[in-house]
Amino acid sequence: MPTRSEAGEGTVGERARGRQPGLLAGLLVAAMVAGGCMVGGVSSQGEPAQPRPQQPRQPASPGAQTTRADGTTSVAEFKQDFNDALGGAQSYWTAQFRKSGKRFQPVRRVVPYTRAGEVSCGGQGLPRNNAVYCSAGDFIAYDVNWSVAAFRQVGDAFLFYLLGHEYAHGVQVRLGIRYTYTIQQELQADCMAGAYLGDSVRDGSLRLEDGDLEEFREGLLAVGDDPDQPWFAEGSHGSAEQRTDSFFRGYEKSLGACGLN
């Protein structure tokens, strides 16, 4: 289970040391969040595109038959790991922007939901079995049942990847990053999530236990596009292999490998 360092509770990003200074310098930090909707990293102009659910191999609802034997079972554990992952991402990006002489505006809010259409992004209801960043309201929304099921089936490390990925989309908006193809946006967010986690492990803000790296891999394999998904299609996230490669490139080489400089 990824855990926050006891020596620095609440200061994950503030104790960041040894990273490349000023990596974000020169990039445009958006003063206001643009309209539109970034669903799983799919940003659209004007009317938002139809959200495309993630495709993890999870049961319809959490069950004992899919619970891993690593103790990651309770809702209380889910909430703690979720908050740790979210707080770590916010602290990490606050520190990165500060090193570049910029002030970071955290993602405004995080919204749980349980029913399709319960939460809207740009006037369009979000589907079940998904986690998204919505630029229209600058928030992250997630299907609670799907997230808890993935937490129990894949493991707690999946939450740190999931929150790192969605938070990276918020950072892309703040930096004014927008690619022609959504797959480019998605793979960069995977790389940025990997950098957040790898840097946090290296600076001692986060500790990994045995099996956590494998949980990252298993989660990435679960959310890859179907083999017949065209890479250039709106909403493409990348194959399981592409997503795994992008994540671990960031994990091993930090933000310099993510095309931010």
From TrEMBL:
Positions of transmembrane segments: 21-42
Keywords, ordered alphabetically: Membrane, Transmembrane, Transmembrane helix
Tagged with keyword Membrane: yes
GO annotations of cellular component type: membrane
Spans annotated as Disordered: 42-72
Domain of life: Bacteria
Membrane-topology descriptor: Single-pass membrane protein
UniProt keyword annotation of Metal-binding present: no
Cross-referenced Pfam families: Zn_peptidase
InterPro entries for the chain: Uncharacterised_pept_Zn_put
Subcellular location: Membrane
Protein's name according to its UniProt entry: Neutral zinc metallopeptidase
Species annotation: Micromonospora sp. CCTCC AA 2012012
Taxonomy of the source species: Bacteria, Bacillati, Actinomycetota, Actinomycetes, Micromonosporales
